[in-house]
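Quick one, T. Sequence first:
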Amino acid sequence: MPSLVALATAVVAAALTFSPAQPPPGPLPPVPLDGPQKLSLAERTVPCRNSLRDADLINRRIANSRPGDETVFDGTCLVNKTIKLVGGRTYRGGSRTGTVIKQADGANLDAIFASDGYLDNTTTTGLPFALRTLTVDGNPENNPTAKDSIVIRSWQTQVEDIEINGSRRHGVRVTSLSQNGTRITNTQVNGRIASTQINDSGGSGLYVEDPGNSVTDWQFADNYVAGTGGYGVSLDNAAGVDGNYGLRANRIYGTGISDNYIEDFCTVGLIARVQGDAASTISNNRILKFNDGDGTFLRVEGNYGDGKVAVTGNAIRGNGGGVGLDYIKGNANSLEVVSAGNLVTEVAIPIQVGPGVVVSSGQFAALGGI
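C-alpha cells:
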C-alpha cells in the first residue's frame, strides 16, 4: 500500500469536473507602463473560463507584471502550457474550491507551475515568489506522460494552502536543476511549504532534488501527503531543517525531524542518513503500521565522519512484525545515538544496533539528573 505522511487532518476535496469550453474572455485591463502600480482586485485578477486560452491569458498577465505585483486566478483554469512563475511576485487563488488549475487533456506538461529560472535554464536560483490558496488537478488519466505539478527553483519561496491531486510524477519538486539539467552555481535556501494537501502522486508527494549541496534550510510543515507511488517525502538534501518509504531524509546536518505522522509504509517508515561534523534530532514522530507486512519503522544510518543524533519521544506501533528502531553505522567512521523515551510496541524486533554504533540513554540519564 502507498505510504501516508501527515501533519494535518485530511480534507476531502470536491469533485472536479470538465465542462465544455466557454466563450473566450475579453481583453485584460492594461498594465501601466510607468509610475507606481495601484491595481484594483479586478485588475489583478485573471478570469479563467475553463478554456484552452486560459494558460496564454495567465502567462501574458504574469509577463506584463512588475516586481511586487499580485496575480489572482479565479475559476477553473484549463492549462495546456506551463504557467511561468516570475520571481518577486505573489500568486494566489480565491480558495481551494474557487480556483482550480487543471491540466488539459493531452497536454502532458513537464510542470503545471514552474519557477522562471527552471524554465529559462539559468545558472543561479530564481527570485522568491509566493503561491497560495488554490487546487491543482493533474488530470493523470488523460496525461500519461506528464510529470510534476509544481516545480520550484527559487529561494525564499512560499507555497501555502494548496491542494494537489493526481500528479503523474511528483506533487512538488524543489530542485537545483533547470529544465535542461543546468545546475545552479549558488544556493537555494530558506523556503517554506506549509498547509498543503498532496494526494495520489505517481512519484513522491514532495521531492527535493539536489545532486550538489544547494537546496538546504527549507521548512515542510503542517502538510498532508497520501497515496504516493514512491516516497511520501523524499529529500536528497535535508540540512537545516531505497523502496517505498514514508519519509526519506538524506544527508541530514544539524537537522530536526519532528512531529510527523507516518502510516502503512511498505519498506521503511522514516529513514535518515546522518552527516558528520554536526548533530541532529529525530523526535515526536508517530510511525504506525496497520497493514500486512514487516518493514523497518525508523532507521538511522551514518553517512560520513562521526555521526551524532538524538532519537527521542517517538511512538512506534506495528502489527506484530518488523523492526522498530534500526541503527546502522553505514559509511560513517562511527555513529553515536542517544535513544531515549521512545515507545516501541507490537513489533518483532524493538531495537537493532549494528556494529560500530554506540547507543546510550543520554548524559542526564547517565548522571541520574532530571
